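Input record (one chain):
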Amino acid sequence: MALVKFQTENFRNLSASPVSFSSSFNLLYGQNGSGKTSVLEAIGYLGLGRSFRVNRHQAVVSHGEQRLTVFGGLDRGLSPSGTEIAGKPEELEHRLGISRDVGQKETVLRVDGEAVRSLSGLAKHLPVSVIDPGVFDVVAGGPGKRRQFLDWLVFHVEPSFGSDWQQCQRVTSQRNQTLRNGRLDEKLLRVWDQQYAVLSERITETRMGIFARFKEAFERLVQEVEVPWTEGLKLEYYPGWDLSRPLAQVLVDHREQERKVGHTLYGPNRADIRLKFQARPVAETFSRGQQKTLVILMKIAQGMVLSQMGKQVTFLLDDINAELDEGHRAMLAGKLQALRCQVFITSIERPQVEQLWPEGKAPDYRLFHVEHGKLMEE
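The corresponding structure, as predicted from the sequence alone:
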C-alpha cells in the first residue's frame, strides 16, 4: 500500500490543504525552511507515531496551538510491473489518522474511522523507512541504534513482536527496580527472572529468524552493486548473552554484578548487529562515505525482505544531495524503483530526473515545489 492522500492540521508550518501523491516517486524541492522536511516528518507520524527529528510533540505542533492532526489515505500500491493497481481514483484501501493534544498529552489513533488502542495497529499499514543524516548512526552509534533498525523490520514481518517486546520491557523495568532495592529479594527476583527468560527466548528466536532473511538479502545486494570494499565485511547478530547457556542461569551467575549496577545486563535489551571488517568494527575502519553507503545498502536490504512478502515500503529520503554523490543517488533510486517502493525525495535544487535515472527509465513521478509550507505540483 502507498500513501496517496495526505493532509495535516497545525503541523509545524504546513498548509492544511489536502495533497495527492504518487504511489511511486514524489520529488519535493524548495529553500531551507520551506517545509520540505516537515512533510516527511508528518508522513513519518503515520508510520512511526512520532517525529524522526525531535523527541517532543510540542516541538512539532504549530505555534500557539494545542493539537496536531495528520491524515493519510492509502491505495493498493504498485503492481509487480511497477504500475499503480487499477481501481477508481477515489477508492482508498485504508484511511489512517493520528491526533496529538500536547496540553492534555493524549494521542488518538484511527484506522478507517475506528479508534485503535496501540500504535502498532496504525503503523503496520504503512512501513515508513527514513534516510536522513541521523540514520547513519546505525553504523557509528551504539547498539541501541542497530536494535531499533532490526526491530523495525521484525515488527513489519511479525506484527506480534511488538506486544512481546513491550511486555519484555515491562518485566525488565520491574526486575531493575528489584535489583535497585537496598535489600535484594532473591525470591521475587527469581519470579522476574523466569518471566524475563521466557520472553527473551521468544524475542530472540524471532529476531534471529528475521535477521537471517535480512542478511541473505544484504549479501545478495552487495553482489549486484559496485562496492568492492564490502569484501571481508561481516554482519553478525549478537542476542545479548551466550546462547550456549540458558538465560535464567546466566542471570543467577551474574546476580552480584547486576545488583551493583542496578539494572539488567544480559538479554534482548543488550542485543546488537555487529558490523565488522577484517575482524575489526566497521566504525573504526570505514570512512564516513563508506559508512553512509553501508547504511543505504542495509536500508535497501530491509526493503527487499518486505518486498518479497508483497509489502510496499514508503521511503523518506531527506536532502540526499547533501549526503550522497550523484552515483550513489542513482543507485539508490534505481534499487527502490525495482523494489516497487513508494519514495519521497527532498532537495533544495529542482531535482534532475536524468541524474536519478541516467538510463532514461524514470518511473511515474510527481514533482512538487514547496514554499511557505504549501506544496504546489508542477
